[in-house]
Design brief:
The chain has about 300 residues and is α+β, with helices and mostly antiparallel strands. It has a 7-stranded mixed β-sheet with strand order 2-1-6-5-4-3-7, with helices on both faces.
């Protein structure tokens, strides 16, 4: 693969990597440093041997962030960006981007995350905030999947014990409800309004085999998939239209649960009033790791 093609593909994942890095590190400057280091590591390997670039990049970035968190702990650094501090990140990181990143997780959450060990923080962020399965997280933190699950559980208890809540949960629930309503009625234009122009759909291997695309970029493409008919679009939209609002690990989400048995979960990353990322999980092993509350769905 040529360096030009590789660079173009990397850019498609940059915002996702930046979002993961920010939640792990609590600093846009450090997140950009981690993304840059991830690019350097990618440039040093044979990209033709990478079967899943998105997964490889997330893993590489996570390892970089883990090293940074461990190094930071030894230096006892302050992790949150200080107001007015010069930001060495590129020009794309401005006040508006800072505000969006901070709004998407909350300063209170960042403060509590800073009390976790590096392994706890990484496991919690990857699993609870980005729905990465424990069997993929385990090698990063050098633990078994069961031990990684325990790390996330311990981190979750500490986060909840720290009194951190999601003040945006009602707004996010309204966005999820509006998305499902527009999906059921095939309202393409309304879906476009709910989706960020650069929205990304990610699906696990089981969801892909059930006719959801592995990765879909952009509001028009995702809207067409959700509201369209025929082939992949019809198979995906059928499940999306039958999904109900639920809570997954305490956050508003959606689930397709025919007969009360969860077959697929849709988790959303919402910024403002728009969906910037939609993750579809259908692997039974991944679903078993989630705390899914069907009570609010009426299923």
């Amino acid at each position: 693969m040529s360096e030009e093609i590789l660079a173009r593909q990397f850019e498609e994942h940059r915002e996702h990597l930046r979002a993961v890095g920010f939640r792990m590190l609590g600093s846009t400057a450090e997140a950009d440093d981690a993304v840059q280091e991830t690019w350097l590591r990618l440039a040093r390997v044979d990209s033709n041997e990478i079967l899943n670039l998105a997964g490889w990049l997330t893993t590489a970035l996570s390892r970089v962030c883990l090293d940074m968190l461990r190094s930071r702990g030894s230096r006892r650094e302050v992790t949150l960006d200080e107001p007015g501090r010069p930001d060495p990140a590129d020009a794309a990181i401005g006040p508006e981007t800072e505000a969006v990143l901070a709004d998407s997780i909350g300063v209170a959450m960042l403060v509590v995350l800073d009390t976790l060990t590096p392994a706890e923080r990484l496991t919690f962020v990857l699993h609870d905030l980005f729905a990465v399965p424990f069997d993929e997280i385990a090698p990063i933190v050098d633990r078994s999947p069961a031990a990684a699950r325990q790390l996330a559980s311990r981190a979750r208890r500490r986060v909840q014990g720290g009194g951190v809540s999601e003040p945006d949960a009602p707004r996010r629930r309204r966005v999820v409800e509006a998305f499902l309503a527009a999906s059921r009625e095939g309202r393409f234009e309304d879906l476009l309004e709910l989706l960020d122009p650069d929205v990304v759909l990610r699906a696990d291997s089981v969801a892909v085999s059930a006719s959801a695309a592995g990765v879909t970029h952009g509001a028009p493409a995702l809207s067409a998939m959700v509201a369209g008919a025929g082939g992949v679009a019809e198979a995906f939209s059928g499940r999306a239209r039958a999904a109900q609002v639920v809570t997954v690990d305490g956050r508003p989400a959606a689930a397709w649960a025919p007969g009360g048995h969860v077959r697929a979960v849709y988790t959303f990353v919402v910024e403002g009033d728009r969906i910037v990322e939609l993750v579809v999980l259908a692997d039974p092993a991944s679903l078993a790791e989630l705390d899914i509350d069907l009570a609010s769905s009426g299923v």
